[in-house]
Amino acid sequence: TNPYLQQEVLSASPARLRWMLIARAAELCGFVDQLWSNGQMALGNQWLLRIREILGELLDGVKDSQNPLSAPICDFYLFLLQVTLEVDKHQDRERLKVLAELLAIEAETWRLVVDKAARDAATSSPAELLFPSLSSSLDPSLGGFSLEV
Asked: What is the rounded CA–CA span in Å between residue 138 and residue 146?
């Protein structure tokens, strides 16, 4: 096992985990295509099964029935699962490319969500509360402390 990846997974937010899984599934589509183009159909099929498992995990993670986005997200993952079944049944490399493109778009969407969450967390840090600016500390009516003697 890769200790760096293991630590990254253990410390990742749910959104980041989702992004990592989707990105991995998109990456695996390229790997399956490469295996199939080299005539390694059985090995490619095993990796396609892993893509289906990832999509199943993603679908399983959409549990909030109160969230209005849950139903369309579930529908999308069900559609992707259906595409994997079609790809597998016919070993259809064109449908595999479509699957890879859809997963890449989904991965980019979640990367943007992760980036926004990181920016929001950075701007809402309590640093201003811990280190008040000097200008506000000079005005006793604002509270805080004064550096004047």
From this structure: 6
Per-residue pLDDT in tens (0 to 9) along the chain, 149 residues: 666 555 665 667 988 999 999 999 999 999 999 999 999 999 999 999 999 999 999 999 988 888 898 999 999 999 999 999 999 999 999 999 999 999 999 999 999 999 998 888 877 655 555 555 544 445 555 554 444 54
pTM of the model: 0.75
Domain boundaries, the chain: 3-142
Distance CA 70, CA 63 (A): 7
DSSP 3-state percent helix, strand, coil across the chain (nearest 5): 80, 0, 20
Topology of the domain comprising 3-142:
Four Helix Bundle (Hemerythrin (Met), subunit A) (1.20.120)
Please tell me the distance from the alpha carbon of residue 95 to that of residue 37, in angstroms, as a whole number: 14
The separation between CA 87 and the C-alpha centre of its own chain, rounded to angstroms, equals 23
Among candidate residues 43, 142, 47, 64, the one with its CA nearest the CA of residue 100: 47
Specify the 3-state DSSP secondary structure of 118.
helix
